[in-house]
Amino acid sequence: MRVIIVKDTDTLGKISAGLIAKEMRKSPHFVLGLATGTTPIPLYQELIRLHKEEGLDFSTTTTFNLDEYVGLPGDHEQSYRYFMNIHLFDHININKENTFVPDGMAEDIDAFCEEYEAMIKDAGGVEYQVLGIGSNGHIGFSEPGTSLSSRTHKTRLTENTIEDNSRMFDKKEDVPTEAITMGIGTILDAKRILLVANGANKADAMAQAIEGPITAMCPASALQLHPKVTFVVTEDAAAKLTLEWERPQSRKALSV
Ligand code: GLP
Question: Which of 3, 64, 103, 253 could staple 245 via S-S, CB 3.0–4.6 A?
């Protein structure tokens, strides 16, 4: 497990994008797993810069997003498809036909979830999975209490998550109560995993995820089982960690 503690979100974006770009440049048909939320935005901004200024090529990249709200169509401003378009896909040379976000409008959601798993498998599996974290330790929308070997499924959002995410909607009642999410088992199948976290409200979840016991009560703690997981965490989100983790002074010091 690698934990990199950084001073601000700009550095978080640069270091995490650098780690991904390094792997992407090695493999022409890269399969990238993506996350939404405010934390990965600086990472996407840096990927866009790397594309525009340093030739990072997405033309043969395939992406799979972690999750989507049930009941929101892709053109809804709070849907995760919309988020991905405006924060990343519209600014890089990716073929949108190769970008996959769970379909929150699917008629048969269970069948869709099975199909999503099959699509990831057919693409050769996710090579680098980006994750954020909820203040309750969720990854994607895999909420506390989820099976640690779960696959893509429909989930009911906890009151805590609805409250956290209501800041994006006009009112709390507008937040969908259900979502489709990759399961913990799906996420752990990725060859590499990168979790980004920022803000004091993530400090408890980060301490539990990185230094706590592996438990379904903190789904992110399951990442301790993965051989190639990196956490890039700002100082406030890392405030409750007790071990001596990496604190690079610059991106260069890390050679990413
Ligand atoms: C949502 C997403 C998660 C994300 C979380 C944190 O709940 N489903 O994948 O990690 O938000 O978002 P933020 O980075 O804005 O705190």
Answer: 3
Helices and strands (H, E) in the chain, number of each type: 7, 10
Looking at ligand 1, which atom is closest to the CA of residue 133? 10
Nearest CA to ligand 1 atom 11: 37
Distance CA 56, CA 21 (A): 7
Residues 136, 165, 189, 198: which is the catalytic one?
136
Paired strand residues for 215: 218
Q: What is the pLDDT along the chain (256 residues), one digit of tens a residue?
A: 999 999 999 999 999 999 999 999 999 899 999 999 999 999 999 999 999 999 999 999 999 999 999 999 999 999 999 999 999 999 999 999 999 999 999 999 999 999 999 999 999 999 999 999 999 999 999 999 999 999 999 999 999 999 999 999 999 999 999 999 999 999 999 999 999 999 999 999 999 999 999 999 999 999 999 999 999 999 999 999 999 999 987 666 665 6
Which pTM was predicted?
A: 0.96
* Ligand 1 atom with minimal separation from the 35 CA: 9
For residue 78, what are the contacts with CB-CB under 8 A and spacing of at least 6? 69, 72, 168, 169, 174
CB 123, CB 64: distance < 8 Å: yes
Residues within 6 Å of ligand 1 by CB = 35-39, 66-67, 132-134, 140-141, 161, 165
Residue 143 annotated to the active site: yes
CA-to-CA distance for 129 and 150, rounded, in angstroms?
Answer: 16
The span from the CA of 65 to the CA of 162, in Å, is 20
Residue corresponding to tokens 């999750």: 67
